[in-house]
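Take a protein:
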Amino acid sequence: MDPTPEMQIRLATVEDSAIIALLGRVTFTESFGNLFRVHSDLQEYYSKTFSVLKIKNSLQKKENIYWLAFADDLPVGYAKLKLNSPTLFLEDKETCQLQKIYVLKDFLSLRIGLALQTILLDHAKASNCGQIWLSVYKENERAIKFYLKNGFNKIGDHKFSIGREHFDFIAMAKKL
């Protein structure tokens, strides 16, 4: 039996842009790639959302904070917190958004997602955010259960489109 890999989480820097862009593409494909009928729609989304330049620019904005997770020095996941991110679903304007927690499928059992979420929530609290919200794909039962178990509640529904595909999402929030 293999020993449990050593896990490390650290703040990401602009120098990590390529790692985050690649992790974003791979983890998004693992989670949602099968939902796309037209491969070019997925590739176009990657170009807009997970290009190295887009991630680099995002990392340079003071309201965006990224963390990288490693298992035995291999980058296996990341998280993104956006400070000062109000939503129509909440009256409280002192909100932040848990924008992303993605972990490579082979490393999900190591509870890296929970470790990333803990660090992200601690930072949100320290930043005086009153609430944190997120958006999750309605069919992603594993993620919904994860967030419910960790104190998030459903606050609304919305739609999101990528190329020809249309998705139903659930907005969830948690008081900090």
About this structure: Residues 7-175 form a domain with the Aminopeptidase fold (CATH 3.40.630.30). The CA atoms of residues 101 and 117 lie 7 Å apart.
